Amino acid sequence: MKKSTDKSAAGVKEIARLAKVSIATVDRVIHNREGVSEKTKNKIQAIIQKLNYQPNVLARRLALASRGTIRLAVLLPNISGETEFWQAPLDGINQAEAEIKQYGIEIERYFFDQNDESSFDKQVKKIIRQKPDGILFTPIFPEESLVLTEDCKKKGIPYVMINSDIPGYDSLCYIGAEIFHSGYLAAQLVNYCVAKTQKVLVVKIAREIDNNYAILRKEDGFRAYFSDNKIQNKILTLDSKQTDYAAVAKKLDQLIKKENDIGAIFVTNSRVSVVAKYLRKAGLENVLLLGYDFTKDNVEFLKDGSIDFLICEKPQEQGYRGVMTLFQHLVYSNTIEKNYLMPIDIITKENYQFYRN
Amino acid sequence: MKKSTDKSAAGVKEIARLAKVSIATVDRVIHNREGVSEKTKNKIQAIIQKLNYQPNVLARRLALASRGTIRLAVLLPNISGETEFWQAPLDGINQAEAEIKQYGIEIERYFFDQNDESSFDKQVKKIIRQKPDGILFTPIFPEESLVLTEDCKKKGIPYVMINSDIPGYDSLCYIGAEIFHSGYLAAQLVNYCVAKTQKVLVVKIAREIDNNYAILRKEDGFRAYFSDNKIQNKILTLDSKQTDYAAVAKKLDQLIKKENDIGAIFVTNSRVSVVAKYLRKAGLENVLLLGYDFTKDNVEFLKDGSIDFLICEKPQEQGYRGVMTLFQHLVYSNTIEKNYLMPIDIITKENYQFYRN
DNA sequence: CTGAAAGCGCTTACAG
DNA sequence: CTGAAAGCGCTTACAG
């Protein structure tokens, strides 16, 4: 390793020397602060230009570390067996926290019950009382989310939405997939694998279907693919507001008795494992089954062939990136991409081993 | 933003104070350096344990920045129209360089002709002469690569392999996909989309097929899926050591005249666009076509439906991660995962827009 | 409007 | 075997 040589990145000291001022003044110009005469300001800016000065991010962070703590609030569904999905974003958030807590970032976590809008409300009130410096949340309930976003706007608190978007809620940014398109993709896969004569079933399992933007958008996308491409398969629908196995199985049973020759089933969220369990018990494993998310249950059914395709949108990375975005914005005032669209990944029995959430 | 409070991460100073020694001695213990009495060493280690001391990476890097430059060498195929694929790893390398050049890392790039083993040889000699501190390369030619790895071992220079692996070449680490499995995955997709009576064609297009480990492994994996699952489709083979369109088209023409009812074609590398062009011209777009890599040409054919699936292994991330790994190893002596296996992504017409290499 | 000095947490000669 | 001091490049009171 030889000693670093020439162009070794001039810093504030060098600029100060060339401009015959102190580094404090250089700093003022770099940060566009008040109280520098036009003349010296111009002189310093010229030198910065000429030297193509790039601040040393390391040193900047280190110096800043001594300042105050930044407090972020995170609002996500709580994690139960049924909603294990949300572990992934949380993992990402934890990872981000580990990386940046050295810079004085603290993260407060709030959880709500996905089946209970009032629990969302309650947590929102708590957060508002805490006055965090930035918020990360997922707008599962559009109306209730509005309370939060309105308050944030009033107080100038930046907020990031992950996993699903609500157009018109003007956030700092959205990090997640284009969910309409993920339904579209599911339809493409179905079309590859199913005969033209077979029927296709869309299953929606959630306590709050009508108020669940993501679930509805996915079905829209799914249906759009068929109509855009003039594909004639008959599309059936099954909704279940009860999310337990018994209830879903019963409904499926009734439907399948009535409708013969269903070639594929598309479940619009991570509850696909419930359907997989039913198909396995009923000996209907030749039906193509697609659903969402890389949860433990789902992967088990993927392995044994009950589930054919899982669509996955890197939930862990969403959490990670969400926190990092707030960090970038609050600490460095970086400009932020309004929509960070995640890839829409296709997971099968033969590539799940290598998947990274 | 309130002032940081309590547990605000004790540092070397605090440790030194508690152990009643100087911070220099603490530093010696942290880095397991010689010349500290057992007694003080134990005392300091106990305190480090108790405080759960985490070094401040920022400060460490900043302090280290003043040391010498680290020089890395990168050896990749040159980028032509035909081998545009290699732009992606190079992009990743450039990105990594931008992030770490502040820490005194310099990267020297060397290119060889993928169709000419002697050009690889020549570049290896150049690199050896330069005595870099670390090397990143792709072992397309096993024998010629051995010259490089042997020399590195002798001199203790760490090297990282990306994109394809050669088992037994004991590198610092391999970053890339499990290529056998990527062939396996391709076969699964084919099996979903093709009738049992149809034939399947494997196409290998490369100047040096027999000496190209990756291409052979992918075919192995592809075939293994069929035999493991006792699937009976007849598998045909077409090899072309000429990589230009005219030559490949001619061979395909001959084969397709002889063999009727080919349901799918699997091309074992990024040259799949050549086959796509042929199928489009021949009006055979109903044949399922699969191949590798997110190149501009391939994506064009994906869009128009000539290619159905592209398998992609994040080449840009491979380059990025390769450089970062050498950096971690050389600067922080971090322990490195021996095999960093990339996901094997499935790209279609309906999700390519969101893919990130 | 401007500057001298201290500090961020760590590393490294150098001196004993 | 151990310590005092300078330095990494930047930021921030504080004093003028």
Coarse shape of chain A: elongated
Give the class of chain A from helix and strand content and strand pairing.
alpha/beta
Q: What CATH first level of the largest domain in chain A would be assigned?
A: Alpha Beta
Instruction: Please count the helical segments of chain A.
Output: 13
Q: Helix content range of the residues of chain A, please?
A: 40-55%
**Cα-based radius of gyration of chain A, to the nearest Å:** 26 Å
Taking strands numbered 1, 2, ... along the chain, how are they ordered across the largest sheet of chain A? 2-1-3-4-5-11
> What proportion strand of chain A?
15-25%
**How many β-strand runs of chain A?**
12
Of all chain pairs, the largest interface belongs to:
A-B, 48 and 48 residues
* Mean pLDDT score of chain A: 90
CATH superfamily of the largest domain in chain A: Response regulator
- Major β-sheet profile of chain A: 6 strands, parallel
In short:
Chain A is an alpha/beta fold.
Question: Your description of this structure?
Answer:
2 copies of one chain form a homodimer. Chain A is α/β, with parallel strands linked by helices and 357 residues long. The first copy, chain A, folds into 3 domains: 12-55, 434 Repressor (Amino-terminal Domain) (Orthogonal Bundle), CATH 1.10.260; 70-177 and 315-342, 3-Layer(aba) Sandwich (Rossmann fold), CATH 3.40.50; 179-312, 3-Layer(aba) Sandwich (Rossmann fold). Helix content of chain A is 45%, strand content 17%. Chain A has helices spanning 12-19, 23-30, 38-51, 57-64, 87-100, 117-130, 142-155, 179-193, 213-228, 245-258, 272-282, 296-303, 315-332; strands spanning 70-77, 105-112, 134-137, 159-162, 173-176, 199-205, 235-240, 262-267, 288-292, 309-312, 339-341, 345-347. In chain A, the strands form 2 sheets. In chain A, strands 2-1-3-4-5-11 form a 6-stranded parallel sheet, sandwiched between helices. In chain A, strands 7-6-8-9-10-12 form a 6-stranded mixed sheet, with helices on both faces. In chain A, helix 1 crosses helix 2 and helix 6 (117-130) runs parallel beside helix 7 (142-155). The first copy, chain A, is elongated. Mean pLDDT of chain A is 90; it is low at 1-7. At the A-B interface, helix 4 and helix 8 of A face helix 4 and helix 8 of B.
